[in-house]
Design goal:
Blueprint: H1 8-24, H2 48-51, E1 69-76, H3 78-81, H4 110-114, H5 131-134, H6 148-162, E2 172-178, H7 181-187, H8 196-213, E3 217-222, H9 230-235, H10 241-252, H11 262-290, E4 295-300, H12 331-346, H13 378-382
Parallel strand pairs: 1-2, 2-3, 3-4
Helix pairs in contact: 6-8, 8-11
The structure holds 2-acetamido-2-deoxy-beta-D-glucopyranose (6 copies).
Length: 394
């Protein structure tokens, strides 16, 4: 997740190894834009009624149909910038393939199929400040929770000051946040500074900024990834170990190779996740106290209990899901994770999937529930009837 900050000698060596292995090992052979295995779109037909936008622009955040969302945006680190997603070698992991990101990417048309009028999604390869490509994906490689308030400020500035074509007050927006890998990778050196409470507090601060400055927004947080799973990529496969272990140990995540046990890494991730989960209650209470009906905050927990990376049937890691550094997701990995996220968004709070199987995709792709065809929120999950409004086709 962090940019690889190691000596250029090490990078040269790693690239050399990866190039030589890439020729040998078909699992590494993958070019940007290669056709993806069918992830379900050809047969994807939800009832037109649940896919249509609302008849009248909703004013209540608990009545938002997926097609009512006009703007999407994301905060995060290199997993959201999609570092390496289209990479065929370790150097390209330095590139940010935002167009492929599971929270935001549009290169593969996944989100657009759901909602052709969307804006904000990313196209291509670029850094966060290249508007024509990144649009509203503000994620920065190396970012930690402590950077979230700054990213929140920047995204508001970008929408309000730089891009008056955005109807800031009236458009419904979806802001996704996914963060924590770099905090985890620093935790072993400073368990107090990187405590779960500090981690969640910084995310809370960012969300408070959105709460105070952005009208008509659904904020969703994808909980922390079990980063310790990456160790399995190093130890279970003789082919990847010589490449990925040094990359992890000397570059991307030194903590994976500290004196920290895997069990305590597991517990740390769970503590981060629990602190994140509490934010949902916090903002539920806050919106109630303020009688605010155009903001909601939802946790998407599909990754909470995903303890294993994608595996082949023979028990070796399925490298098609990962970039060549065995750390970031590949294009296929992003596409697979995106299916779990969509599933979560359409599941009611309280019964959301919390243990995605990263070896598979969430087939069949979910359709909004006809009895509550909205992006599910804390309140429409309790009682949807009071939020029901007609679609364009009703
Ligand atoms: C990996 O190495 C171990 C120990 O050297 C060996 O037993 C095993 O067969 C190897 N696996 C593969 C897939 O080559
Ligand atoms: C790990 O090593 C550090 C010093 O490098 C030490 O402060 C810490 O107590 C050790 N932790 C464990 C669990 O042994
Ligand atoms: C939310 O409000 C409930 C009921 O007043 C309270 O029990 C709970 O502790 C609050 N949660 C947070 C995170 O503030
Ligand atoms: C909350 O706001 C709604 C309209 O936005 C209003 O009808 C209602 O009376 C308010 N409730 C409280 C408790 O202020
Ligand atoms: C992590 O801990 C949970 C229990 O808290 C356990 O169910 C799970 O198997 C552990 N995962 C790994 C990979 O050890
Ligand atoms: C995860 O999915 C793979 C591929 O579909 C399947 O082989 C495996 O049994 C699944 N694992 C679990 C724990 O369900």
């Amino acid at each position: 997740m962090k940019m690889i900050v190691v000596s250029s000698f090490l990078i040269t060596w790693i690239v050399f190894i990866i190039h030589s292995l890439a020729d040998e090992n078909p699992r590494f052979k993958r070019d940007w834009g290669d056709p993806l295995p069918d992830l379900g779109y050809p047969g994807y037909n939800c009832s037109p009624n649940v896919m249509a936008p609302s008849k009248n622009m909703p004013t209540n955040v608990h009545s938002i149909r997926p097609a009512d969302i006009k703007l999407i945006m994301a905060l995060g680190d290199s997993l959201t910038a999609a570092n390496g997603a289209g990479a065929t070698d370790a150097i390209s992991v330095l590139l940010q393939y935002r167009g492929l990101a599971f929270l935001m990417g549009a290169d593969k048309d996944i989100l657009l199929k759901y909602n052709p009028k969307l804006f904000g999604q990313s196209y291509g390869i670029c850094a966060a400040d290249v508007w024509e490509c990144a649009f509203l994906n503000i994620a920065q490689p190396g970012a930690k929770a402590v950077d979230m308030p700054g990213q929140a400020t920047e995204i508001v500035r970008r929408m309000q000051d730089d891009h008056p074509e955005i109807d800031f007050n009236n458009d419904w927006k979806l802001l996704s946040i996914f963060i924590g890998g770099n905090d985890f990778c620093s935790y072993c050196r400073d368990p107090v500074g990187y405590s779960a409470a500090n981690f969640a507090y910084k995310i809370q601060e960012a969300i408070e900024y959105i709460y105070d400055h952005v009208p008509r927004v659904i904020v969703q947080l994808v909980t922390m990834l079990h980063v310790e799973m990456e160790k399995k990529l190093d130890s279970t496969d003789n082919v990847t170990a010589p490449i990925c272990q040094p990359l992890h140990e000397y570059g991307e995540c030194k903590c994976l190779y500290s004196n920290w046990t895997v069990e305590s890494m597991n517990q740390t991730v769970q503590a981060y996740q629990q602190a994140e989960m509490l934010l949902q209650d916090y903002f539920e209470n806050k919106t109630k106290a303020d009688n605010k009906t155009d903001f909601t905050f939802v946790i998407q927990p599909f990754i909470n209990n995903a303890f294993n990376p994608a595996m082949n049937v023979d028990g070796t890691p399925d490298l098609r899901m990962f970039a060549p550094d065995c750390f970031h997701f590949s294009q296929l990995g992003h596409a697979g994770v995106a299916t779990w996220l969509w599933k979560n968004m359409l599941e009611p709070v309280g019964s959301k999937t919390n243990a995605a199987n990263l070896s598979s995709v969430a087939y069949p792709l979910g359709c909004p529930d006809p009895t509550c065809p909205f992006i599910r929120t804390t309140r429409n999950s309790q009682n949807c009837a009071q939020y029901l409004t007609p679609s364009e086709l009703d």
